[in-house]
């Protein structure tokens, strides 16, 4: 079989159980999707799993929706149950986990479920987060993300309608950044630094999310190599 240079690179990367931490809009979803292709592992996005529950309209989704619309963390038991079920489905061979864990309790719960091999903290300034998310459009059909200056009309992937995400209003983005990220990140970084020390490996890496999608992708591959 002829492998593309991307998948050749992917096969050289050792870490396959990967967590992406970072503020809203840092590019976690965009990069996780690319890395998942590169490594041929599933992309597990906590936000996407929750939005799918909301769309299904069942009790779990109804409970989650209010928290998401207000830019608050969905309660621990609910999110651990949903992410844990997905992790159990994909098995332990590999995954890119995006948007989970977001606080210490979730990091501890994740350790009970599976041993992660690399944690990447994708950093982006608050100003750039607000700029990117005020310009974001998402496809109502498949969830693909766009920047409104670069893409107008319909989704390139499925032809669906492009809409604003209900939690991308500026006041909600500011709350997501401050409460879900800024207030939680130091405890999470401390947790993974200590875990790495206990295991004798550099578990945690920091990568800048500034620059083009391709520039960030290359930095991430270096951090995983
Ligand atoms: P979730 O959907 O996970 O939102 P988020 O973490 O706030 O992340 P985003 O999807 O907004 O941003 P991203 O970092 O993935 O960036 P993206 O690649 O999309 O969560 C939504 C809600 O669910 C939460 O608020 C919470 O209520 C709940 N929730 C989720 N997980 C939870 C948990 N673990 N516990 C409790 N509750 C939870 O990029 C953003 C934009 O920038 C896009 O338009 C993209 O095209 C663009 N872009 C990406 N990279 C670049 C680049 N390099 N240059 C320019 N533009 C770029």
Percentage beta strand: 5-15%
Low-confidence stretches: 1-8
CATH homologous superfamily (4th level) name: P-loop containing nucleotide triphosphate hydrolases
User: How would you characterize the largest beta sheet?
Assistant: 5 strands, parallel
Q: Structural class, judged by helices and strands? A: alpha/beta
**Cα-atom Rg, whole angstroms?**
17 Å
Task: Name the average pLDDT.
Answer: 91
What is the fold named in CATH at topology level?
Answer: Rossmann fold
Bound small molecules, deduplicated: BIS(adenosine)-5'-pentaphosphate
The shape, in one word, is: globular
Strand order of the largest sheet: 2-3-1-4-8
User: Which sequence of SSEs, written as H and E, runs from N to C?
Assistant: HEHEHHHEHEHEEEHHEH
The percent of residues in helical segments reads 40-55%
| CATH second-level architecture | 3-Layer(aba) Sandwich
Query: Counting H and I runs of at least 4 residues, what is the number of helices?
Result: 10
Number of strands: 8
Number of domains: 1
What is the CATH C-level name?
Alpha Beta
Ends distance = 23 Å
Task: Explain what this protein looks like in three dimensions.
- The protein is α/β, with parallel strands linked by helices.
- It has one domain (5-224): Rossmann fold.
- It has ten helices and eight strands.
- Strands 2-3-1-4-8 form a five-stranded parallel beta sheet, sandwiched between helices. A three-stranded antiparallel beta sheet has the order 6-5-7.
- β5 (136-139) and β6 (145-147) form a beta hairpin.
- The protein is globular, with a radius of gyration of 17 Å.
- The two termini are 23 Å apart.
- Residues 1-8 have low confidence and may be disordered.
- The site of BIS(adenosine)-5'-pentaphosphate has 33 residues, from α2, α3, α4, β6 and α8.
